[in-house]
Each structure stands twice: as C-alpha cells, then as structure tokens.
From TrEMBL:
The lineage of its organism: Bacteria, Bacillati, Actinomycetota, Actinomycetes, Streptosporangiales. This is Uncharacterized protein DUF3592. The chain crosses the membrane at residues 12-35, 128-151. InterPro entries: DUF3592. The keyword Transmembrane helix applies. Keywords: Membrane, Transmembrane, Transmembrane helix.
C-alpha cells in the first residue's frame, strides 16, 4: 500500500520549487519592511515601571526539540495617579528585563496604556529591519522572476 502511495505522489519540478522559494523570500522581505516602518518617536513621555511578569514560551517541534523561544514582559506603572497593571511592554530589547526589575518606559501622551522601551523611540531604531527587508524583497523578486521564466521555458 505504501509503495502505491509513493508512486502516485507528485514531486515539484525544480522550476516550481524556485518559484515557491522566491515567493517565500518575498514574503519574508515584506514582513521585514513592515517591521522597519515601526515608529515610536511619538512616545515622548517617560515613567518608571516595574516588571510584574516575564512569560517565557518555549516552542518545540514534533520531535520535542527546541526551535524557538517567545518572551513577553508585563509591567506595572502609574501615570497621573492612574495605575496601569500587567501592561505588555513592546519595542526593542523587551526580553532583557526580568520580574521585579525597575525600568523606564515610554508612552505617547494620548496613549499611556501602550508602553515601549525607550531605545525603541529613537529616530531610526528600526531602520536596519527596513533596509534588510528591502534587500530581501529585491532578492525575492529576482528569485521569483527566475522561477517564472524557468516555468515558461519549460512549457
């Protein structure tokens, strides 16, 4: 039965594989471009906060091998006599902070419930992601174009 199953299974042509890889690279580049457009420069207000919780999720594959780690940090702080508890910290370097630590966080004057790390508010903080995304998009376009030409020549 397995031999019959394997015989009916169709393999991707090299041309289709190149096209698929190109599209994946293009998608990754677009995500990096999107991240690179992040702008927290309007988060001009600062306040002291305390890390209330550091949630660590370890991702594993089907074999149980570790493939990644996702860290989410939650902070408590007060703005103009209003307390904000268990608010997620966004921005660059959030996983550097541990429970009980004090830190300075930044927020936009009209949005005190959204806090980021101060280094995320610096102009150009996400420029590297944007430039890398631009390069990856160009590479993805080239690979996709090559795959498309290969598919057309095959016919």
């Amino acid at each position: 039965m397995m031999a019959k199953l394997r015989a009916t299974r169709k393999r991707l042509s090299p041309q289709a594989s190149v096209l698929g890889v190109g599209l994946i690279v293009l998608l990754v580049g677009c995500v990096a471009l999107f991240v690179g457009m992040t702008d927290y420069t309007d988060h001009t207000e600062r306040v002291e906060a305390t890390v209330e919780e550091r949630d660590v999720d370890i991702e594993r594959d089907s074999d149980g091998d570790r493939v990644g780690k996702d860290i989410t940090v939650y902070v408590d702080y007060t703005v103009e006599q209003e307390s904000y508890r268990d608010m997620q910290l966004y921005g660059l370097g959030t996983d550097d902070y541990h429970e009980g630590e004090s830190l300075t966080v930044a927020y936009a004057p009209d949005e005190p419930e959204h806090v980021v790390t101060p280094r995320s508010t610096e102009p150009g903080a996400y420029d590297l992601a944007w430039y890398a995304g631009l390069v990856v998009v160009v590479v993805g376009v080239v690979i996709t174009a090559v795959g498309g030409v290969m598919m057309r020549l095959r016919k």
